[in-house]
Every structure is written in C-alpha cells, then in structure tokens.
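> call design_seq(struct)
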C-alpha cells in the first residue's frame, strides 16, 4: 500500500489505505464465513474509507453489498424512526439497483407520485431481471406500499422498519448470492430507543436469523459503541467481532509522511518532520492535510525541501484553515450542548499528553476559581470516553484528536 496524500474525501482503493492491510484482510472472513464485524475508533482515522474499500472488495468477489450512513439520517437533529426506516430501506434498494445499473432510474422513480411508483415498478424490475439480479415485484411493492401507508399515518414506522430489516435476506436468497450490509456511525441508532424501546433487540432478532447476510458496522463514539457490542446486558453482545481502528503509531505516521514526500520528489529534514508529527500526531486525516499543504507550498516556492520554515507554515495553516475550524467548531458545539462541564474538562487536554484525574481537577479549579467535586470529574471523563473525545490508558487519559483538543483549549468560549 502506497503513501499518497489526499485530504477530505474518504478513499475506496485499498492500495490507498496506508497501514490498513491487516484490517482489510478480514474481507476473507466476511466473504467466506459471513462473519459480522464492528469497527471502533475515533473520528478521522479512516473508518469510512475502510468500509468503502471492503464494500467494493466484497462486491468484486460476487457478494451483494449495501452501505448505510446512520449519520446522514440526522438532518441537523436527532435520528428519528421515520428517517431511519427510510434511510435503511432506500439505501439498500439504491445500492442493489446500482449493482443492476439502475440506480439513477430508482432515484427518479422515488421522486414520483405514489401511484406512479407502483405502476412503474414492473418495468424497472423486468430490467433488473435482465441484469442477472432478481427481485420479485411483490416484496418490493409491499415495502414501498408500507412506506406510503406509514406516511399517510395508517401504520407505524416501527412496522416499516421491521419489514425493511428482512430485505437483505430476501435479496440474498432470491439471487442465491450472499450479502454484506455496512452501517456507518451505528451508535446513532441508539438514539431511537426512546421512539422505539427495544429497537436494538428487534434488530438483533432479525439479524441473527439471516443466514446469507454479514453485517459490518462502525462508530466514532468509541465507548458507546464498545458498550453496545461488549456489554452482556446489551442485545448485540457477542454478535460482532470488534476491530479497533487506531491512529497511526509514531513510526507508521513518520513513514507515511516520508514515503508520501519521496513520491513527490521532496527531501525531508528530520526536525521539520518531528514538528508536524507533534501537532498532527497519528491522525490520518491531519497527516494527509499536512502532506497536501506542504506539497502546495513547496511547489509555489519552487523548492523540493521540507524545512522547518515550511513545517511551521503548514501547522499555522492547519490551525486557521476556515474549512477545518468550521468542522472543529461544529464538533465542539455538540459537546457544549451536551454539557458545558464536559467542554470544560475536555479543554484541559489542550496542551497534549496524558493526564490523571487529579491533574484535571486542579486545572479546572484554577480556571474556574472554585472547588470541583471529584465525582463530577470522574463522571465527565467517563462520558468523554464514551463519546470518543478521549481515551483511557490505565490510570491516565489522553485526547483522541490533539488538533481538536488544542483548538478547544485556545477558544474557551
């Protein structure tokens, strides 16, 4: 796998997923045994890219696949049962149609009136049959009709979802081809427990009956997802094999940058490399940003040496880039909305490194000029771990994203 700088969009080509060969090798277990997996890791470490690559690799091996982004269903707020039922159903149908070359036709069809949807279905299904994929019109028509009835208030979206959950198994059995369903940011589904108590039990009861389907999920709320799949009291306990996706370790991060610069014909000075690594740590997204921005600056200056001067300019740009600060502001606002106390505790990690709870308590008390009960520190740290903002290593804690924690500390309000 080669080091190639690309910031922003998730990658699909396995050759572009530097340092993730071992993770991608699990495609064998998914394809051959229909083993279900849960990818757990903080934001910006490449989980979505891994899901995309596995999706394409398994499709090349002959499996049917579908990708569902639970975060896409938020629509600026909380995930609702209605939006999730739609998202689940039509994400699967859209990807299924794509494998038959019919994705655009489906998108057009779903914009039409209810009667037009049903009347046009026969022609569309006939074309799918010719594309070697099979789906009887009855189950698809029934699924669309039940959506329309729910929209009209005749039935609940719980009934819609229960029918949609069996769609992958129906498609796999009909086509005599196994299927893999990818669900990104799975932890957001837990928000639906208020609207539909027992939703995770319902999903587990359906999933475990599907003998032709593998389920692959991911989540960046590390502690929350770990609890959902690893707590004996949770319905998905023992269903998924957990696969942690970590930031690069020091040598891997350094090699990624060095190899990426070498491929661009750039010479790297060791102090400059150490400077950017100290700030970006091993987060693949930030390492790619460093690479892209450094190459841009060097080409503009018509030089091929990555010096300390260039490194300092890159870090300054990373701290101030409007697109990045907008993203970081949005993530911090979510944290502040949950609890200003959580935001205050998180800011203590702005200087980097590892902290003990007592050190966090002292920092907070100096900032707030009052005593802070130790129980509040403990509760806040537990919640930040659950949300994926920090990680615990023995008796110490560390921010999972040093760029975000430094940004939060620099902007207290």
């Amino acid at each position: 796998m080669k080091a190639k700088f690309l910031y922003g969009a998730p990658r699909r080509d396995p050759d572009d997923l530097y340092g993730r060969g071992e993770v991608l090798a699990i495609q064998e277990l998914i394809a051959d045994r229909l083993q279900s997996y849960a990818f757990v890791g903080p934001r910006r470490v490449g989980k979505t890219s891994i899901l995309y690559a596995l999706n394409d690799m398994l499709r090349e091996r002959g499996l049917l696949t579908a990708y569902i982004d639970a975060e896409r269903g938020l629509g600026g707020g909380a995930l609702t049962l209605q939006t999730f039922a739609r998202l689940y159903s039509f994400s699967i149908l859209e990807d299924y149609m794509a494998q038959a070359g019919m994705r655009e036709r489906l998108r057009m069809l779903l914009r039409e009136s209810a009667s037009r949807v049903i009347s046009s279905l026969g022609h569309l299904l006939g074309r799918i049959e010719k594309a070697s994929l099979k789906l009887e019109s009855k189950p698809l028509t029934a699924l669309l009709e039940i959506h329309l009835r729910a929209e009209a208030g005749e039935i609940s979206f719980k009934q819609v979802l229960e029918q949609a959950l069996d769609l992958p198994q129906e498609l796999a059995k009909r086509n005599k081809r196994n299927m893999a369903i990818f669900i990104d940011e799975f932890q957001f589904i837990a928000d639906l427990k208020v609207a539909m108590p027992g939703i995770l039990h319902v999903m587990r009861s359906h999933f475990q009956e599907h003998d032709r389907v593998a389920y692959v999920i991911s989540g960046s709320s590390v502690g929350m997802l770990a609890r959902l799949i690893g707590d004996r009291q949770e319905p998905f306990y023992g269903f998924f094999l957990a696969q942690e996706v970590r930031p690069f370790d020091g040598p891997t991060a350094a090699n990624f940058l060095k190899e990426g610069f070498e491929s661009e014909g750039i010479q790297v000075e060791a102090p400059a490399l150490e400077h950017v690594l100290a700030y970006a740590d091993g987060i693949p997204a930030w390492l790619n940003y460093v690479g892209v921005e450094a190459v841009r600056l060097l080409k503009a200056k018509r030089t091929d040496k990555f010096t300390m001067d260039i490194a300092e300019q890159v870090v300054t740009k990373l701290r101030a880039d409007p697109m990045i600060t907008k993203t970081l502001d949005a993530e911090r606002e979510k944290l502040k909305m949950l609890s200003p106390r959580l935001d205050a505790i998180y800011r203590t990690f702005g200087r980097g490194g590892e902290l003990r709870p007592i050190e966090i308590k002292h920092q907070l008390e100096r900032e707030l000029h009052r005593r802070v009960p130790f129980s509040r520190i403990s509760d806040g740290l537990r919640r930040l771990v659950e949300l994926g903002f920090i990680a615990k290593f023995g008796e110490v804690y560390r921010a999972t994203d040093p760029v975000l924690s430094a940004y939060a500390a620099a902007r207290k309000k």
